[in-house]
Amino acid sequence: MPRKPRLPALLAYLFLVSLGLLLYVSGREPHEESEGVAQPQSWVPEAAEGAKAKEDPNKSVKKRGRNKELPANPHDYHMMINKANLCTNDQKLWLLVVVSSSVPNFLRRRAIRDTWGGAAALAASNAKMVFLLANSYDANLQKQVVEESRTYGDILQEDFVDSYMNLTLKSVMGLKWTSIYCPQAQYFLKTDDDIFVNVPVLLTYLQESAKTRWITGCIKQKKAFRPVNAVPGMPMPPAHPPFVAGAGYVISGDLIKELYEASLVTRPIPVEDVYITAHLARKVNAHPPIHDARFTCGERVTDDCDLAQGFTGHHIGPERMYRVWEKLNPNGITSPCFDF
Ligand SMILES: *[C@@H]1O[C@H](CO)[C@@H](O)[C@H](O)[C@H]1NC(C)=O
Ligand SMILES: *[C@@H]1O[C@H](CO)[C@@H](O)[C@H](O)[C@H]1NC(C)=O
């Protein structure tokens, strides 16, 4: 029988083992290279840079700790409905609008087509629009969507579960599709199907000066993150890096492919706006985004006419969509929004 180790030796052994473990773990903590401020860990994106990290041990130490175990993050869902030629003959396209929608939202899509997203209205602004859908696994709804796509030619659909938690996948889908089928678009606007977009006003602004490597929208993150052991009065960094609200943000076309490629090695989180405009934007050195209060941060639009000067308005259901549109584009009479 082996001799029982004496207590002090056992304690010393345990101490060394825990010290080693501690050093190992702290060596693998994420390190933030930029900004100079120590950021709380809560929002640190965890990259999955599998192959690269293995080749370069220095890099894997500098970057996030658990990289190597995370799988790459391919976005390789089958396209159930595509519209591959939407941009083909449009080399001077100014704006591609991608509207995150959901299979059953037929009325919302119709209201958008009948108002700000109508093909004729958009053509006048050199803009195009597509809806992003995923799979509802409902045969009857799917039949209607296929029919809708035949009629309007503005539906893109990929085969992943159409759910709120999967909105991030929908936005990545928009980036992927644009980088393959519409890379010439000068600007990319991501919005939702309950948003009124004032395309002419937005376009006028975008055309004032050429923007490159540029993301703009309404910066939502302002609150500070306070750890329990914070020293009173100590300035606190935000809980998320600055990001712009998903209700409507614009990205210059030169970043779309880079952002898509960054998504392939960045673990998705369920908040699409934080993911795209903060985590991916940081990866491609296009962070922070530029704040512009003419984009909605999600607040209710009190007066329809407020949308005459703004770029986007949130919580606009189909009925109000028509009403706002008629106020801004009255047939033959003066707009009530402009007669002051
Ligand atoms: C890692 O860093 C050390 C010191 O900075 C350097 O000498 C070495 O070449 C680097 N290794 C790799 C694989 O880049
Ligand atoms: C998102 O879509 C994937 C692929 O279809 C699916 O496996 C997953 O369950 C979905 N997640 C949610 C939260 O709906």
UniProtKB/TrEMBL annotation:
Keywords: Glycoprotein, Glycosyltransferase, Golgi apparatus, Membrane, Signal, Signal-anchor, Transferase, Transmembrane, Transmembrane helix. It is found in: Golgi apparatus membrane. GO terms for cellular component: Golgi membrane. One of its GO terms (biological process) is protein O-linked glycosylation. The keyword Membrane applies. InterPro entries: Glyco_trans_31. It comes from the Eukaryota. Transmembrane segments: none annotated. Residues 1-27 form the signal peptide. It is a single-pass type II membrane protein. Residues 33-74 are annotated as: Disordered. Pfam families: Galactosyl_T. Its main location: Golgi. Residues 49-59 have a biased composition (Basic and acidic residues). Its EC number is 2.4.1.-. Coiled coil: none annotated. GO terms for molecular function: hexosyltransferase activity. The keyword Phosphoprotein does not apply. Belongs to the glycosyltransferase 31 family. PANTHER family: BETA-1,3-N-ACETYLGLUCOSAMINYLTRANSFERASE, HEXOSYLTRANSFERASE. This is Hexosyltransferase. It comes from Chionoecetes opilio. The lineage of its organism: Eukaryota, Metazoa, Ecdysozoa, Arthropoda, Crustacea. The gene is B3GALT1_0.
